[in-house]
Amino acid sequence: MSPRHAHRPEPRGHWLLLLIVVSAVAAALVFEGWTTHEVASQPTRRPCTSPIPKAADTGKPVVRIDGGGVQTAGMPARTVALTFDGGPDPVWTPRLLRLLRAHHAHATFFLSGVQSARHPGLVRRIRDAGHEIGSLTYTGSDLGSASAARTRLELSLTQTALAGSAGTTTRLLRLPLTTQADTMCGGEWTAARRAAEQGYLLVAADRPDRRPERGVIQQYSQTDSAYSEIKKLFRNRKIEKYTTVSEGLGRAPVNAPASTVGQLQGKALLQVQSIGHAFVQAMTWVLGVAGALALLRLVLIIFFARAHVRRLHRFRPGAPWLREVNEPVTVLIPAYNEEAGIESTVRSLLASTHPWLQIIVIDDGSTDRTADLATWIDDPRVSVIRQPNAGKAAALNTGLAHAHHDIVVMVDADTVFEPDAIHQLVQPLAHPAIGAVSGNTKVGNRRRLLGRWQHLEYVFGFNLDRRMYEVLECMPTVPGAIGAFRRDALLGVGGVSEDTLAEDTDLTMALWRAGWRVVYQESAVAWTEVPTSLRQLWRQRYRWCYGTLQAMWKHRRALREVGPAGRFARRALPYLFLFQVALPLLAPIVDVFALYGVAFADPVESIGVWTAFLVVQLLGAGYALRLDKERLRALWAMPLQLLVYRQLMYLVIIQSVVSALFGTRLRWHRMHRSGSAGEHRTVGPAARQGLS
User: Which domain holds residue 579?
Assistant: First the structure.
């Protein structure tokens, strides 16, 4: 309401830190998505456009390209170089290593950079066992159709991954999708020449029909069938030596220690890959949790809304079959710079059907004509109190001190009331156990898209929740726009507290802890003006969310209390935490997962999941609109609400939680008013038809 809560400004350091963390995770996620997509795409080899040069087409599997010259080589007789493509694999690599050790054999492992980054421990085991490491590129994609830049990236990333995982480099390369040397034709030969320019020795494999005792390079994938074939090969008595490619060729070792800089870069790459992979795995689990929570919340509010409708006139204390409440009512209107709407608010109250009203406007140090406009209303039921700016809670307490009646209604100065709203609002107070009543707040200025989004939120979110809260007897908030209280209940809890920015939530929780009950009266309709810009909306919801967190923390000890206070706390506080804090913090994962899936996985599946989520939301919102007697045509704005408005609310909650964790003290942000609360207001019985 007013700028009284102008505490120290929010520090921006933690926002910069949060931005850096989010950017780093986003980069890691994109990198993981790219690598996973490339690995999972299973590229197929394109037909050769030109044959391999004759100098390389000798049938020998090792090809060295030096400038314009080409040399080929193979294994000597009775020597077999065992080579394994892909991996390291957490299942088969350890088994193969044990098999090789048992036969005192060494082999060459052509490793994928992606898998090396995911399983660095296995890369070190291969190195420590004396085996040779070669490159199979980072993602195993078809280099024959790749650009020169993509080829360099695939090779350099693999070297970086090997440096980070095992502190080694390699000059052996096997092009993915090639088998024998003559398959390095067309685009593959172009890729081979590019790799050779970087110093790589290209290794293919001998033809399957070549007898092992004549000396061969055998190519295997890391599978159970390869494991069985190697065991059978080891029984061949004609083979004298099982070795690595470089040893079989009589060349110097092709693995060399990576530089310090290379190792640091490699470890950084491993961290990026690890973060991205972990985030994708966590995202899958969080998607399940968020989806389950969202579905659970929808089921709960629909179930209890139906229960609320069934019991409304039969079981709830304060229902119409009890005595009618006609006692005088004091209405408190705290106001700060509300000249746009104060007159409409007061005149709508003066038109009330309730027989006895005392209307007190508390001007909280306004700098405009708020107090004057209220004073000029010539009606003995209206009085104006002026005070220096002290905040909304202080203004309400000032009005409470001047209240003449035992029933007090607190309203906002931007709200317009139906003629029967006050009379309907106070009826549940016929029951002596009820200390406060929440009215039904509707969005008045809903002509623009932002207003329609908030209209849907008020109906689908706030009002359905209030129905459930009443059935469970755990109403956490009587909104500041329209709420009725017993005066002695307010005085019993010390009036309206200034401890939090959500004074309405704080007050309601205090009433529960004092032993009073709080209910919802849907027939008490008031029309409020909601923010008309994203900036105003952000400020308002930031204050609401931050204040709610303050109130939850302030009343946390109620969880251990007995009676109505304990029941309220054990029902309301976990619900608020799960569905107004935890779920909104997790819910962005649904959208991130959808974008990730469209970009890197199955677009149809991802869009299908998001569409199913939308359909469920539409069904729930449609039911809520019918209960509130609102037209269903408002549902057309819901898909856009999920795409834009919902993201803004998530960011608000994230900001509120971060601010609370860092101990930031938030100031009160006043919303600019235009006096449009009554745009959709109707008069008399038609009011509850909610024409939109």
Answer: 288-689
